[in-house]
Amino acid sequence: MRKIWLAGGCFWGVEAYFLQLKGVLDTKVGYGQGTIDQPTYQQVCSGTTGYTEVCEITYDEKHLPLPKLLEHFFRIIDPTTLNRQGPDRGNQYRSGVYYSSDDEKEIIVNFINEMQPHYMDPIVVEVEPMKSFFPAEDYHQRYLEKTPGGYCHVNLGLARPDERK
Length: 165
Known about the structure:
Elements: E1 2-8, H1 11-19, E2 24-32, H2 41-45, E3 52-59, H3 66-76, E4 84-85, E5 88-89, E6 95-99, H4 102-115, E7 126-129, E8 133-135, H5 143-146
Parallel strand pairs: 6-7
Antiparallel strand pairs: 1-3, 1-6, 2-3, 2-8, 4-5
C-alpha cells in the first residue's frame, strides 16, 4: 500500500473519479501544503492560507502502479492551467502531486517530462513532498456519494470499464 496526494480543482470530483478505480483502496479529501494548523473550508477558500484542496489516495501499487495512477490524474485535469480547473478558480484549486519519498518524486518528474510534448503550454502541476495534510470536514468526505447530482467538474466517465472496480 502507498499513499499519494493529488490536487486537481475541487476535491469532490478527484475523489469520486479515483474511488471507482481498481487498485484504489481508500481516499480522504483534505487540505494540503498550507501554513496554519487545522484549517477550515472557509479559511482555505479565502485563498490566504496557502492550502490546496487535495485527495489523499491509498492504493495498491501492484494493481495500480504510480505511472498509471498519474495517467488517470492527467485524464481529469488540465495540467497547463495555473490556479484553476474547470470553473474552479483560486490558489486553493491549483494542481499538484504531493509525495512522501524520493523514488516517487523521480517517477512523477519523469512522467511529467514525458507528458510535456503532448501539450502546447507548459505543465504547471506542483510536484512537492507532502508537508501538511489536514482532513476536510466530514461533509466533504465522499461528498458525491452522499449528494447524487452534486457539483463536479470532473468527467467521471473517463475511466474505462476494465479499469473500474
